[in-house]
Design brief:
The protein has helices at about 35-50, 50-75, 80-85, 95-100, 105-115, 120-150, 155-165, 175-185, 195-215, 220-230, 235-260, 265-270, 280-290, 295-315, 315-325. The chain is an all-alpha fold and about 325 residues long. The protein is built from 15 helices and no strands.
Length: about 325
């Protein structure tokens, strides 16, 4: 093939000979459509650059950070200090002047990971086993469905797409009893399959909708050029479209990973057994039955935060690129 497609991010830049606010390469500018989008983007940027908006954002960031910082401080304090006073006393200069530097310990993390009563190690492995397939399965199916809706003509395509889109408004709660009954009939209750299937089912409508929108915005000339060169649907999908969709896939993958990792409702209903229960189920059990063990709850909460934090920071570049690619759509 002779195609050399430009990345989606190129839509946001001015091409030689293209007027400011015009359509991206390969797209026809409907009357004022992209100019209105550019105008809205300029107004949004102006509002976000306002000092009041920056001050409010900074205030919200502090309000979100202070409790997390307190939880982190508590996780390193000895049990007797946690029960004696609040975490803020750890940083109180008067307390330090009177009693010296406060004690710091890693015993809380040792107990929560390897203690005989709690032992979150197995639940941490369960969270990884639950999350990875629950991210890969819906993305794989959604990519194929989005390609069919975007680039393959078949009877009833638009009606079917609207039906898939409408599934997003179905509350998860109303599906739980029918799904649980079906899993019992299939004799897969108590395994990882109910959790994988449920997360995939709940994620598919949004995944298909988002990936279809990204895929539909790719210039048709790229696909037509590939067809002229003799490429079939498989070659067009993997060699033309997939490289352009990496930011969108990464952005949705991060959202789905964080949703599944932090989920409690689906795991409680479909995977509360100890052999498949993730970290969130175990932490909820600690809060309910051992509410006084703050040293275990605080350290366990940070063990649960560690993996999604690493995933988000390592894929942040793709996440931002995916959001920016979607921000220029009309």
């Amino acid at each position: 093939m002779t195609t050399n497609p430009a990345p989606l991010q190129a839509f946001g830049h001015q091409e030689p000979g293209e007027s400011v606010g015009g359509a991206p390469p390969g797209r026809e500018d409907k009357p004022g459509r992209f100019a209105r989008v550019d105008e809205r983007a300029r107004k949004a940027k102006k509002r976000l650059a306002n000092p009041w908006a920056s001050g409010i954002a900074l205030l919200i960031a502090i309000m979100w950070t202070v409790p997390t910082f307190g939880l982190l401080t508590t996780s390193f304090r000895p049990v007797q200090d946690i029960r004696a006073n609040g975490w803020w006393n750890f940083w109180d200069p008067r307390e330090i002047a009177e009693n010296g530097l406060p004690d710091v310990t890693l015993d809380n993390y040792t107990d929560v990971l390897f203690g005989s009563d709690v032992s979150l190690g197995q639940y941490l492995i369960n969270s990884v086993v639950v999350t990875l397939p629950a991210v890969l399965i819906p993305i794989s199916i959604a990519l194929l469905a989005a390609y069919a809706f975007a680039w393959i003509d078949f009877k009833g395509r638009n009606i079917l797409f609207v039906g898939v889109f409408a599934l997003q408004v179905v509350p998860i709660q109303v599906t739980m009893i029918p799904l649980l009954t079906q899993y019992v009939n299939w004799d897969i209750a108590g395994t990882f399959w109910p959790v994988w299937l449920s997360h995939s089912i709940f994620a598919l409508p949004l995944a298909i909708f988002l990936l279809h929108n990204f895929m539909k915005d790719i210039p048709p000339s790229l696909v037509e050029a590939a067809r002229v060169d003799g490429a079939g649907h498989v070659q067009i999908f993997f060699q033309v479209l997939m490289p352009l969709l990496i930011p969108a896939i990464a952005a949705f993958g991060i959202f789905q990973f964080l949703w599944v990792w932090n989920d409690l409702l689906v795991s409680l209903v479909f995977g509360s057994q100890s052999q498949v229960a993730p970290l969130t189920v175990r932490l909820a059990g600690l809060a309910g039955s051992r509410g006084e063990t703050w040293h275990l709850l605080s350290s366990g909460a940070f063990v649960a935060m560690l993996v999604p934090l690493i995933v988000f920071l390592s894929l942040q570049r793709y996440f931002v690129r995916g959001l920016l690619a979607g921000s220029v759509k009309g």
